[in-house]
Amino acid sequence: MKKVLALLTLAIGLGACSGEQTTYINIGTGGTAGTYYPLGGAFAEIWNSNIKGVNATAESTGASVANVNMLEKGDIDVAIIQNDVASYAENGVELFDRKIETIRGMATLYSEPIQCITTDSSINSIEDLKGKKVAIGAIGSGVYCNAVQILEAAGIGEKDYKPQYLSFAEAATGLRDRQIDAAFLVAGVPTSAIVDLATQRNVKVVNIDKELATKLKNKYSYYTDYTIKGGTYSTQKEDAQTLTVQSMLVVSSKLSEDMVYNMLKSMYANTDRIKTAHKVGEFIKEDTGLEGMSIKLHPGAEKYFSEKGIK
């Protein structure tokens, strides 16, 4: 009996010695019906299959702002958020009353253009929004911040128009029912709600002209130029010039350099899997992984992109 117990103890001891340490990676995404969640699932699958000892899981969350708060608390390790929200978090401005010390950049993913939508034929520029009823998102939302920044850069303060603090679903209904004159939204194109609206109303995307765009880009590092091609919406005949923010991956500063490096390496080696998760996956490319990067990079990301000669 003693001999059997000794052998069992030895076997357990050897098992413990040979067992690998598991690294749990929780990924903050967004709602299950959105874009971030299926992408997070694809990232988790890639990292689980390609990085030894990793157990990654995508979690449905309240998206960008909620993800930053969860990252700070240590509830998640990686998150998909907008790059402007990342900048606010790092600097403790707009949506955040303090600097989030643990947030680091991993890579930017794809564009989420700012769309100013109108059904009013008299509105042809941002300046034309003076005196109009304009939906600018819920107070404290990312859309609200983008809209106010653009309007203020155009010399339009909140006393110069009639702000409507609406979700986009509410704004789309307001445009359809002619209760508002224009609405800002931040989303990939074509946006399904606008596609539907264009079957009922003459939808137009309002241009952000070159001078205004330059002014905004000089002040806010996260904005880049974007063209919404004519025909994106059935009633939109010409190209519309606007600005875009980027969706991006952020990570906790507590993750190791090697871990983040290997996460990037395996992600870019398996972009076909990302494309099957969502159509925006076709825009996730290594050579654009630093475009619109708005915060300090994690050392693992610095190492990866430096080795690839990407700046």
UniProtKB/TrEMBL annotation:
It comes from the Bacteria. Pfam families: NMT1_3 (PF16868). Gene3D superfamilies: Periplasmic binding protein-like II. Keywords: Signal. InterPro entries: TRAP_TAXI. Residues 1-18 form the signal peptide. NCBIfam families: TRAP_TAXI. PANTHER family: SLL1037 PROTEIN. This is Alkanesulfonate transporter substrate-binding subunit. The lineage of its organism: Bacteria, Fusobacteriati, Fusobacteriota, Fusobacteriia, Fusobacteriales.
